[in-house]
């Protein structure tokens, strides 16, 4: 498995892997593993888990460096506007990262190569692979190049500041502002085969369930649960009793 196999992708990343197997694993979707058990491949879900944290750290580092006069709240909101499924999927489409993902035939036929959850997860897995292969500095440089369109504006004129915040961010700001509490999310169940799962999540405040949501990924289900919770909450200064199930 030589580096030439994914040479085009390495050119997009401006990074050449010393361990090409890491990049290969980052591109293996679980549907491909399910349909090709004889290949004994490992899917990219554990790399995605690590990559979520790597991406958050790299973007935090770059925002801290680029906008030294901004306060914590401003930096946190801008990071949330950049590091979310919608923006990661847009970046992946622009960079044609999705063209390199190994998908099962079923996932391919249902448009998996353009699904936001597949694309966002792949970006995170690739960044985890870079981090494991070259360390934190290599990951920061790759993030800086990939996200250059997000990191090339003065903070006051940053285009992402005008975008609607994702539902999880809106809910967290609302509950922290009113009650000084942070919502937590729990996986209640998964349904379907490994290559086509549906995730069912709940969002809670302390011991109370605010709402439940479902989606094709955990992140999608969390966003749906947060959206439903926001719809239940009254716009006044107190949480109504019926907001909690």
Q: What spatial form do the alpha-carbon principal axes imply? A: globular
Widest sheet: strand ordering: 1-2-3
Q: Which runs of at least 5 residues are low in confidence (pLDDT < 50)?
A: 235-245
Q: Give the name of the CATH superfamily of the largest domain.
A: Ribonuclease III domain
What is the strand content? 5-15%
Order of SSEs, N→C? HHHHHHHHHHEEEH
User: What is the count of structural domains?
Assistant: 2
Structural class, from secondary structure content?
mainly alpha
Oligomer: single chain
Question: What average pLDDT do the residues reach?
Answer: 85
- Per CATH, which architecture of the largest domain? Orthogonal Bundle
Q: Could you tell me the radius of gyration in angstroms? A: 19 Å
CATH topology of the largest domain: Ribonuclease iii, N-terminal Endonuclease Domain, Chain A
Keywords, please?
245 residues; mainly alpha; Ribonuclease iii, N-terminal Endonuclease Domain, Chain A; Double Stranded RNA Binding Domain; 3-stranded antiparallel sheet; 11 helices; disordered C terminus
Secondary structure elements and their pairing?
Blueprint: H1 7-13, H2 20-26, H3 30-35, H4 45-66, H5 72-82, H6 85-95, H7 105-109, H8 116-134, H9 136-146, H10 167-179, E1 184-191, E2 198-205, E3 208-215, H11 218-232
Antiparallel strand pairs: 1-2, 2-3
3D structure, described in words:
- The chain has 245 residues and is mainly alpha-helical.
- It has 2 domains: 3-161, Ribonuclease III domain (Ribonuclease iii, N-terminal Endonuclease Domain, Chain A); 167-243, 2-Layer Sandwich (Double Stranded RNA Binding Domain), CATH 3.30.160.
- It has helices at residues 7-13, 20-26, 30-35, 45-66, 72-82, 85-95, 105-109, 116-134, 136-146, 167-179, 218-232; strands spanning 184-191, 198-205, 208-215.
- Strands 1-2-3 form a 3-stranded antiparallel sheet, with helices on one face.
- Helix 4 (45-66) packs across helix 5, helix 4 packs across helix 8 (116-134) and helix 4 crosses helix 9.
């Amino acid at each position: 498995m030589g580096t030439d196999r994914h040479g085009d992708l390495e050119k997009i990343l401006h990074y050449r892997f010393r361990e090409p197997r890491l990049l290969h694993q980052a591109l293996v979707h679980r549907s491909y593993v399910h349909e090709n058990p004889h290949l004994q491949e490992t899917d990219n879900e554990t790399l995605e888990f690590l990559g979520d944290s790597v991406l958050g750290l790299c973007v935090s580092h770059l925002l801290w460096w680029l906008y030294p006069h901004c306060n914590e709240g401003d930096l946190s909101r801008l990071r949330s506007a950049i590091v979310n499924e919608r923006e990661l999927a847009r970046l992946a489409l622009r960079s044609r990262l999705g063209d390199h993902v190994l998908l099962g035939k079923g996932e391919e036929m249902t448009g998996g190569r353009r699904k936001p959850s597949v694309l966002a997860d792949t970006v995170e897995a690739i960044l985890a692979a870079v981090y494991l292969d070259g360390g934190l500095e290599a990951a920061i440089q790759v993030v800086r190049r990939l996200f250059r369109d997000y990191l090339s504006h003065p903070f006051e004129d940053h285009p992402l500041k005008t975008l609607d915040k994702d539902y999880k961010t809106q809910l967290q700001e609302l509950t922290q502002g009113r009650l000084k509490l942070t919502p937590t999310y729990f996986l209640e169940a998964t349904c379907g085969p490994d290559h086509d799962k549906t995730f069912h999540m709940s969002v809670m405040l302390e011991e109370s369930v605010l709402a439940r949501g479902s989606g094709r990924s955990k992140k999608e289900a969390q966003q749906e649960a947060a959206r439903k919770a926001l719809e239940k909450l009254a716009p006044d200064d107190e949480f109504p009793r019926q907001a909690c199930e």
